[in-house]
Structures are given as structure tokens and as C-alpha cells.
Design goal:
This protein is mainly β and about 240 residues long. The chain has one helix at about 215-235; strands at about 5-10, 25-35, 40-45, 50-65, 70-75, 80-95, 100-105, 110-120, 120-135, 135-140, 150-155, 155-160, 170, 175-180, 185-190, 190, 200, 205-210. Helix content is about 10%, strand content about 50%. It has an 18-stranded mixed beta sheet that branches. Strand 3 and strand 4 form a beta hairpin. The radius of gyration is 19 Å and the shape is elongated. The relative contact order is 0.20.
Amino acid sequence: MRKTGNRIAVLAAGLVTMSASSAVFAVQLDAIQGNLSPTMLFDKSLGANGQIDVSTGISGANAIDAGGTIILDLGTLADIASFEWSGNDLTSDNSVGGAASGTFGGGGTLTITGTLYDFGVIPGFTGVLMQGTVSGFSAEEPNGGDNFLDTGSSAIFTPLSGALVDGTQALVMNTDYVFAFTGGIAQQNGGDLQDFGSSIQNIASFQWTMTPVPEPSTLLLASSMALGIMLRRRKS
């Protein structure tokens, strides 16, 4: 599996202060997103029916705090992060009429490795930035999106360890994250994407995102607001 370095530069110098061993205060990462370099996505030779198998670099990635401020740059042209994702077995190939659609079971693992820089200058940590498990999900070619592969039902990434997880840094991932991917021109044996009957590669940039799973109270508030709007409309 290919491992490449990563330079994560803190862009908001007045917002975050971090060191190799301790944090002044914690900032929740509310969005992490980026692009994957061309790579294998699905290896038919792994598992009983095939398995997710991604080992590549990250480019154009960033992390965003609760206020919507981009506070990290997770990749430069000269210094790219390592993205390793494997272990989610294909449980059902639901492809019809040349449109790929599949269901994957849980048990996957996802690891991002690189270097954390203090204000983009002083290296504070080098190693695993985040590592955790990936739940089951579905993936499919969207309507009108031939040779593109998206998550139909998003996976859940549960952070377990790493510099952005264990509290030793000012930036933290202390909740489950909705993990989704989209786009990237996908091929099988150099041809069109049809199903999950053979290995799948993406030959263009492949976008991925992580956002915190909404808390039950947040979902309840959103539902209450929607109900209130409906009732007001009926009265009017």
C-alpha cells in the first residue's frame, strides 16, 4: 500500500494553537473534504464477492470548523496525504441495465496519515491523523451520470484514534461522521462502468466528504421547525 506524506497547514493562525503534546483548546471539525487521486476503488479478488480497496493520495482537501471557516489545508501539489480505505465487502450486486448499483457491509477501516503543521511552519505531529471504522453503505451510478459512482446511502465513519481524534491536538473529531463520496470517472478493464462483476478504478479526481452525524436533539429541533412551518401555512 502506497504511503505518501502530508502537509496540513493551519490557515487561521489566530483561531487555533496546537503543539505536539497538548492543545490549548479544542476546535470541533465540522467538515472534512477533498479529492482522491486516480486509484483502485473496488477489488473483485478480495472478500467473498469483492471489497472496497483504496490506497492513494489526497489533494485539494480542507477541514472546516463550526463557524464555516477553512482551518486546515490537507494537501498541496508537492505534499499529499495518504488515504487508505479497505474491508467493506460487497454483499449484493443490484446492477440493472448497465447501471452499477451495489450494497456493501460494514467492517471497513479508513486511515489518513500525514504531518500536522503548526501555522504551516513547525511540524507538530507526523503519523496517523485519523483512523476508524466504516459502516455499511450503498454505491451506485446516479441517473444521468454514466461512469460516475456515488454513495447511495452514506457510510458512517467512527473515529477511533489519531492526532485529530485522541485529544492531543487542538483540532478534534469527537463524534461519528457521515462519510460520502461522489464523482470520479470510473472504469472496468478500461471500459464503461456496468456493475460490480469486476474490479473498478477511478481515472479522475474522486471527491469525498465527512460531516458530523446530527445529534438527536438537532434532528428533533429540525422536525419541530418543519412541523411549525406546515401548521402556519395551513392556518394562513
